[in-house]
């Protein structure tokens, strides 16, 4: 990935980024598309941000390529930051996800005070697993993500320090 990638703090108009990413293709490992009320609620949470949630629009050479960020999470009974990244289809396979997620991890580590950085990848999502490895996560096991039905996930962790 070239140096034209930027992470832009989440803004009011970025709900359109969520809407574009709310496709069956991009949500198949996340439980499927959300209804508009759920998207608006998530967007509002991203706008508030603060220390609990930091979300960014991914731009490459001034064009939106997706979004990435982190949020507070409990991991093994201790505070952690969970990270996530969604890259629009036109940008997939070009290193955008690795560059964006790598930068999000770097920023989360800087903000986290030593807390672990965690990623949960749907078991069988080969692209997610490759991305986690590329960014430096270590596979620590499997778990179950709540939902109906619950989803089997791989638990990827970076432990700073």
Automatic annotation (TrEMBL):
GO terms for molecular function: acyltransferase activity. The keyword 4Fe-4S does not apply. Coiled coil: none annotated. Transmembrane segments: none annotated. Pfam families: Acetyltransf_3. PROSITE patterns: GNAT. Residues 5-161 form the N-acetyltransferase domain. Its EC number is 2.3.-.-. It comes from the Bacteria. Belongs to the acetyltransferase family. RimJ subfamily. This is GNAT family N-acetyltransferase. It comes from Microbacterium insulae.
């Amino acid at each position: 990935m070239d140096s034209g990638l930027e992470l832009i703090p989440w803004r009011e108009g970025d709900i359109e980024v969520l809407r574009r990413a709310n496709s069956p293709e991009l949500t198949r490992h996340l439980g499927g598309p959300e209804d508009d009320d759920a998207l608006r609620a998530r967007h509002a949470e991203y706008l508030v941000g603060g220390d609990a949630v930091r979300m960014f629009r991914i731009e490459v050479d001034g064009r939106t390529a997706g979004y990435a960020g982190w949020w507070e999470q409990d991991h093994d009974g201790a505070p952690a930051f969970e990270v996530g990244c969604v890259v629009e289809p036109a940008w997939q396979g070009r290193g955008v996800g690795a560059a964006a997620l790598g930068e999000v991890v770097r920023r989360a580590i800087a903000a986290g005070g030593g807390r672990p950085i965690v990623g949960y990848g749907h078991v069988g999502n080969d692209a997610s697993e490759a991305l986690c490895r590329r960014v430096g996560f270590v596979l620590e096991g499997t778990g179950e993500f709540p939902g109906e039905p619950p989803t089997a996930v791989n638990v990827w962790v970076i432990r700073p320090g």
